[in-house]
Every structure is written in structure tokens, then in C-alpha cells.
Write a structure and sequence with these properties.
The chain is of the alpha/beta class and 245 residues long. The chain is built from eight helices and seven strands; from the N terminus they run αβαβααββαββαβαα.
Length: 245
């Protein structure tokens, strides 16, 4: 009887150890916090000191609700249209903050959310849309660092949507620079991508020069255009990963 009890205890011990080994140290209980088109935030435009304070409170109230809901991470959209909800060295302030693209809100939303979230035990993951530039002709401004003026050759218009050309090495390099600037200046817990694909309706003429140059070099081993386009996205993600590491 004693031997059976010992064997049973050993079995239970092994089972519990296996269960703990298979379980994550911590669950990722997160939400998207969308800023593009002010989907989740901000609802108030920071055009006055009072409105700026209200805008900041909207953000901290969201985090308070997250904490009350036992969440431990937020995916904060910091770059929805080649713009910034932080002090960027490369791109203009997002229009959602003040109503005008390129106009500073006179505070740093990303620093605010990091400081406040971390006091609540909430991680902040920077949510980036790497390629999207504009959703209409009205969503960019006359900013010195706006790609419409500095690098029009990077932009491809697909219907109402304009994106950065994924096949250009210069675009991949710029995305890496943007991410490096972000992770180098802020205590972020992660970086997450959304919409990292070719826009629907993307025509062959948009990347003929790059694809034909690739085919000439690759010869009989050349990928189809569809596979080659997927490879350009994979290459961008890999280069960003290497940049972060």
C-alpha cells in the first residue's frame, strides 16, 4: 500500500511539473488601441491647453479600464499612415492629435502611455502599419518631412489608398530607420505590425522595373511575381527584426 502511495505521489508530481512546464509564465491579455481615424483615441483634438489635458485623460482612462479588466498589455497604434504619435526623427505628427498633420500636440503621447501603463503593470507594444501612407488625398499635409514631398517616387496610389512601394530597398531601409528611432528612444515592450501586405489592386506596372531586374538576375530559378512580392514583405520583416536585435 505504501509503495502504491509513493508511486501515485510520484505520478502526480510529474504530471504537475509537466503542466507547469507547458504553461506560459504569463498570459498575453492585450487589446488593440487604434488611433488612425481616431477609432479608439483621441476623441478630443489638442488645439488648446484644456483640450490637450482632456485628450491625455482619455488615454489614461482607457488604461484604467484595461487594468480593471485584468489586462496586461496594450498594442498602441503609433504609426497608421506614415505619421507619428511620438516624437519621430523621420515622419510628421499624426493629424488625429491636433486636426493638422505635422502639428505638434505639445506633449508626447507614446511617452505618456508608456509611463502610465508601466505603473499599472501593463506592457506597451508599438503597433505600426509599415506601408500605408494615405487613405485619401486629404490625409497628408504640407510638411517638410512628408513623403509626398520628400520621396514621391516611393509612393504608389491604389484607388483611394496610397502606400509605400514594398519592392524598393529604400523603403525597407526607411521602415527600419523608423523602427530603430522608435525602439532606441522609448522603453517599449514590443513592436507589432498590421497591414503589412501589398494593397488590393496593386498593378504590375508599379514594380515592373524591380521584378524584371530580379528575373534577369535569377534566370530559371526566378519566383513568380506573387511569390516575389511575398518575399519582399518577408525581407522587410526580417530586416526590421535584425535592426531591433
Amino acid at each position: 500500500m505504501k509503495k502504491i502511495f509513493l508511486l501515485l505521489s510520484l505520478f502526480l508530481s510529474m504530471a504537475i511539473s509537466t503542466l507547469y512546464a507547458a504553461s506560459p509564465k504569463e498570459e498575453f491579455r492585450a487589446t488593440w488601441l487604434a488611433t488612425v481615424w481616431s477609432i479608439d483615441w483621441p476623441k478630443t483634438s489638442a488645439t488648446t491647453a484644456a483640450n490637450r489635458t482632456a485628450q491625455q485623460k482619455e488615454l489614461t482612462d482607457i488604461l484604467d479600464k484595461m487594468k480593471a479588466g485584468n489586462m496586461n498589455a496594450v498594442c498602441f497604434q503609433v504609426r497608421g499612415r506614415s505619421d507619428a504619435f511620438y516624437k519621430s526623427s523621420y515622419e510628421p505628427w499624426a493629424a488625429e492629435l491636433t486636426g493638422t498633420r505635422g502639428k505638434a500636440p505639445n506633449y508626447d503621447p507614446l511617452q505618456l502611455i508608456i509611463d502610465y501603463a508601466h505603473t499599472k503593470g501593463i506592457e506597451v507594444h508599438a503597433w505600426v502599419n509599415p506601408y500605408r501612407y494615405a487613405s485619401s488625398n486629404d490625409t497628408y499635409g504640407k510638411c517638410e518631412n512628408d513623403y509626398h514631398y520628400t520621396h514621391p517616387e516611393w509612393l504608389v496610389k491604389c484607388g483611394d489608398i496610397t502606400i509605400l512601394n514594398p519592392s524598393l530597398p529604400e523603403v525597407r531601409k526607411q521602415i527600419c530607420c523608423v523602427i530603430a528611432d522608435m525602439v532606441g528612444n522609448y522603453d517599449l515592450d514590443g513592436v507589432i505590425f498590421d497591414d503589412y501586405f501589398y494593397q488590393s489592386g496593386y498593378q504590375n506596372s508599379y514594380d515592373d522595373a524591380q521584378y524584371n531586374a530580379y528575373k534577369e538576375e535569377a534566370g530559371n530559378t526566378a519566383m513568380t511575381r506573387a511569390d516575389w512580392r511575398r518575399a519582399q514583405v518577408n525581407l522587410m520583416v526580417r530586416e526590421v527584426r535584425d535592426t531591433i536585435k
